[in-house]
Amino acid sequence: MTRLLFVNASQVITCAGAPRARRGKEAADAAILANVAIAVEDDIIGAVGPLNEIERDYGDAERIDCGGRVISPGLVDSHTHAIFGRARYEEQELRAGGLGYMEIARRGGGIHSSVADLRKRTEDDLFVLALARIQKLASYGSTTIEVKSGYGLSLEDELKSLRVIARLSRELPVRLVPTWLGAHEIPLEFRGNSRARGDYVRLLIDEVLPAVVDGNLARFADVFCEPGVFTLEETRSILEASRTAGLGIKLHADELEPHGGAELAAELGAVSADHLAAISEAGISALAASGTVATLLPGTMLFLGRDRQAPARALLDGGAAVALATDFNPGTSPTVNFPLILTLGVSQLRMTVAEVFIAATVNGAAAVGLADRVGQVAPGYSADLAVWDASDVREIPYWYGDRRCIGTWVKGKRCHYAGAADNLNLSREP
Ligand code: NIG
Ligand code: FE
Q1: Residue ID of nearest Cα to ligand 1 atom 3
Q2: Ligand 1 centroid vs 347 CA: distance in angstroms?
């Protein structure tokens, strides 16, 4: 049995508290402690407290000297599209030259080009590509990562993508949460008339969904609900069927234009509504009054060069539960750097450092239905920890773009370990 004692941390960002999404004042307190040690028993956190109080119960534990660094819960990245083939760097200059995201998609670029590419690839090929990408995400401090399908858009290619996620889960220590996003786009072979669109929605509901559920391949279903992609009515029918079949539900909502997606997410009791850069006042009120987590993805708007970010302050001040995530994908957010998203949370969304940590831990966990197990450094929680080369929590979003995470543990097992962590006992340079 693993028994670990993490000692000599400058601060522990515990995020400890209720096992649910935080909102209002609760979202502004990351419960940061100084002078505490953390004891791990097997896969669970056993104790958090002053060393002299807990060490007598953990005399036999392996000591990990953090050298005056910061410990946080392992980060929870609750929105990624990590299963894809080739990168789409050619679109960046097209956008710089004035073409919009939707215009590129209409010309066969965007999601369609990732779909054509993924369909040609074998499961093994996709596994190798995704493995390296997930390891990179983990190297920046994420210990729980939601991963969506959505570049297959056929029965076989969606199942192929989800099987890759299942295999990654078996072979990597990081915790993955699989989401079926068969409704990411209407595939080209179903375009042309509204009957064909309807046929694709029926294929999703009648054939793909049952196969996903039978294979136990996803925990959530997601839909890209946006003008030009899936309508509110199509989204409702796909998500209601998914919920009936036993999946949790999520929406890509109000990303580029206000469309009532947030209101629909609240009405359906979705676990999260994601993007929201174009959410309306009514959408903000609907989310604030609901249990749905508002998942904001500021890296996406930055990368697309849009001048609008989601109204995080209005959501937070209105009482909504806010999470942050990378949206890691080949089209709109090719970053594996979750701490950079925390920087954007502070500098672009005007969140406090405590708010961005709650958003990237407890509230991310709530957005994947795991708030009772991950996202907190507290007794009984999964021993998912990140050690940062920082002596103050505020350094983590401050050194923007840098990889300050030097080690993570998932369920008490070492997950990522950077060079500097070979000697965690070295004290920090001032
Ligand atoms: O979250 N908005 C839809 N889906 C992705 C982008 C997918 C792509 O362009 O490949 C997103 O931004
Ligand atoms: Fe997305």
Answers
A1: 224
A2: 23
Q: Whose CA is nearest to atom 12 of ligand 1?
A: 332
Encode pLDDT of 250-267 as tens digits. 999 999 999 999 999 999
The arrangement of strands across the sheet holding 142-148 comes to 75-77, 142-148, 175-183, 220-225, 248-253, 272-275, 293-296, 322-324
Ligand 1 — pocket residues by CB below 6 A?
A: 81, 110-111, 114, 224, 252, 255, 300, 327, 329-332
Nearest ligand to the C-alpha of residue 151? 1
**pLDDT given for residue 404 in this prediction:** 96
Alpha-carbon distances of 207 from 182, 188, 315, 366, rounded to whole Å: 11, 18, 37, 29
Q: For residue range 68-92, what is the model confidence (pLDDT) as tens digits?
A: 999 999 999 999 999 999 999 999 9
- Indicate the pLDDT class of residue 430, thresholds 50, 70 and 90: very low
* Inter-residue contact 427 to 67 (CB < 8 Å): yes
274 Cα: distance to centroid of ligand 2 (angstroms)? 7
Distance in angstroms (rounded) separating the CA atoms of residues 110 and 338:
23
* Residue of 84, 86, 106, 111 to test ligand 1 pocket, by largest number of atoms within 8 Å of CB: 111
The reported pTM is 0.97
Q: By C-alpha distance, which of 197, 84, 98, 85 is closest to 150?
A: 84
Mean per-residue pLDDT for 265-291?
98
What CA–CA distance (Å, rounded) separates 64 from 230? Answer: 50
Q: Which ligand is nearest to the CA of 179?
A: 2
Closest ligand 1 atom to the C-alpha of 79?
A: 1
Write down how long the chain is: 430
For 274-279, the CB contacts below 8 A with 24+ separation are: 274/79, 274/222, 274/250, 274/325, 274/327, 275/300, 275/310, 275/327, 276/310, 276/311, 276/315, 277/301, 277/306, 277/308, 277/309, 277/310, 278/254, 278/308, 279/253, 279/254, 279/310, 279/311, 279/315
Q: Which residue's C-alpha comes closest to atom 8 of ligand 1?
A: 331
Start-end of H helices in 121-221: 123-139, 155-171, 194-203, 209-214
